[in-house]
Amino acid sequence: MGCSTAETQQQKPHAVLLPFPAQGHVNPFMQLAKLLHSEGFHITFVNTEHNHRRLVRTRGPEAVKGLPDFQFEAIPDGLPQSDKDATQDPPALCYAAQNYCLQPFMELMEKLRSSTPQLPPVTCIVSDGIMTFGIEAAELLRVQHASFWTASACGLVGYLQFDELVARGIFPIKGEANLSDGTLDSPLDWIQGMSNIRLKDLPSFATSTDAEDVIFHFLRIEARSCLKSSAIIFNTFDEFEEQTLATIRKDYFPFPRHIYTIGPLHLLGHEMAAPRAESKTIGSNLWKEDPKCMEWLDQREQGSVVYVNYGSVTVIPVICWPFFAEQQTNCRYACSEWGIGLEVSADVKRKEVADVIEEMMSGETGKVVKHKAVEWKKQAKESVGVEGLSFSNFGRFVQGGILVCYIVPML
Known about the structure:
By secondary structure, the protein is α/β, with parallel strands linked by helices. It has helices at 23-38, 49-59, 90-99, 102-114, 133-141, 153-159, 162-167, 214-226, 242-252, 265-271, 292-298, 327-337, 350-362, 364-384, 389-402, and strands at residues 14-18, 42-48, 70-75, 124-128, 144-149, 231-234, 258-261, 318-320, 341-343. Strands 3-2-1-4-5-6-7 form a seven-stranded parallel sheet, sandwiched between helices.
């Protein structure tokens, strides 16, 4: 699948990657960027100026120095400048992404165009599924485009119900009392591809009492706009979300447009030819890493550690306490569909936490959950192996999904 080493810099396909400026989006984008780089692509990785500064503070100036064929660029996000070492205010960030960022991104594209022949012409844009101004930019520039949906496929289907929630008068929730009177347990049997889903299992913004909730409407629009792309990449594998992916392909994103399931990306990177040695120095962590915990962890017995983390969905047994965004949907699937999780209630007390940890670590249900997690882990590894579907999908994406765009370079 790799490009010839005899290819000159000018002949390289040039991919511009545009993640939403939050750590959980930047990380998978960096994994994808390194894989494309290993396939011979010139990479331009676009951060917001705020995250660009965070990378410099965390990792030093070398973090954004890049390589001759892997460069970092930054665009303003339209928000007041801040040195706070955290993701900016989510509602303000969502509003800015939707209403401000297209123009500075187009100015960056013009800068890249005027840098020829030092840089190969931009041939494709891969933008976040919730940064859909990237689709508009690609259309204006006449280059190919793919959306990268970094969350779960079931999360996307959840967001795609937001229009229907408004149409049916379900959104907004009529009052605070409805949040605790059983209303959220109402089954939503009209959603294709999602079985046994309740209102409270949809992404958290669906249960807002504010008719003008900024994030609800941002994601309502972005999820629909994501479907305008010619291709969507998912960081999942087919067996894991089979029913949901089949529904997306049939009802939301039919052929000839393509869906590429290429996950889990971190495993795919291990299975494929190793990324070029020099790219290993390129990182995406916006917080300073502390590796000391690894020494402590190595001294613990197998299966004796509870890892408390915000927002991670992997094929390991999980205790779910959903709080934000599509965590509610992921929780429902982890516990009811994938069989790898145990849920705690929103108003959980100390004893319930202790009980569910005890059950997960040493109870009979915990044994079943752990066994199922091991099965999924095996299937995930098989999917990214050379005979697996995620491995072949990545090859199809490179050869037919974005390499083809080299035929029509940016004018």
